[in-house]
User: What shape does this take?
Amino acid sequence: MKTSRLRNALLFLALAPAMATAAQFSVEKTPTGGAIVNLDGQFLTELVVDQANKTYLWPIIGTSGVTMTRAYPMKNVEGEQHDHPHHRGLCFGHENIAGYDTWAERATFGDGEKSAARVKHLGAIKLREITTMKGGEKAVIRTVSDYVDATGKKTSEEVREYVFAVQGGNRLIDVDIVLIASESDILVDDKKDAGLSIRVPSEMAVDRGKEGGKGTGQIVNSEGLKDEEAWGKRATWVDYHGTVGGKAVGVAMLNHPSSFRHPTPWHVRTYGLFTANPFGLSQLKLQEKSGAVTLKKGEKITLRHRFIFHDGDEKDGKIAEAYATYAKEP
Assistant: This one.
C-alpha cells in the first residue's frame, strides 16, 4: 500500500510541471461582433468580421512573439509590400461561387470597363452568427456565414470552425470549412484565385514580387519541391519559412485526407501568398478539363486544414511528423 502511494506521489510530481504549464486560451467577443483569442493572457489573434467582404484572422502571433501575417491593407507599415489588398491575414475566398467573387474586393480593381465588369460580380461572405466561442486548453470558434451576391441576396452558406491549440513549441490553428448549396444548385468554378490563404510577412517572402528585392523565405512542400516549383502542384503539406525581425520562423499548412480533392493543389507564390486551392484544376495547369463542380441544393464541400506556426524551417518544426499525426485524426 505504501509502495503504491509513493509511486502515485512520484508520478504526480513528475507530471506537475507539465500540468502547470499547459496552455490556456480565452476568447472574448468584440464590439463589432468578432472575437479575440488570447493565449496565456496574451493576444494571439482577432477574428475580424466588419472590415471587408469576408471574415479573416489578423494579426496572428506565432512562436517567439513574431507576427506571422502581413499588416497591409489593415495597416500601412513602411517596407512592406502594398500589393493585392484582398490578401487579408488568414482568410477564405473564391473568385466565382454562384456567380460572385469573394476573393477580390473593390480596392483590388482600378478604373475602366474591365474593372467595372469585375466589380459587378463582387459578392461577400457575411457573418450571420458565432455559434460557439470557448477557451481552455484549446480555443474553439464556430461561425455560420451567408454568401451573398452584389445586391445582398443569399446564394449559399458556410459553417466554419477554428480550433486553436499548442503542441510542443508550435502554435496550431485548425480551419474546417463546409460550403453548402443551401438555396439552390450552385456552380463552384475552376479558378486560380480561390481557397484558404495566409499572406506571410513581406520580410519572409522568397522575393518581393513586382516591388523587387529578395526576401528571406523559402517554400518547401511534402514532395521536396521548393519555391516557384511548388506552385500548382499537389502536396499533403507546404511550409513557408524565413526570418522576421531577426527570428527564424515559419508557417505550414496541412491538408487533411478527408478534405475536398485531397491532396490539394497549392496556389503558393514566392511573393508571399500561400493558398490551398482544390478548385482551380485547369487554371493551376494540372489538367486541361475544367474542375468546375455544380453542387445540387443541399450538397456540400468540406475543406479541412491545419496551420502550424513554428520556429526554424520545416525540419525544425517537425512538419512531416505533424502531418502524419494530423492525417490519422478522424
Notes: Residues 16-20 have pLDDT under 50 and may be disordered. The chain has one domain: 2-327. Residues 2-20 form the longest helix (19 residues). The two ends are 41 Å apart (CA to CA).
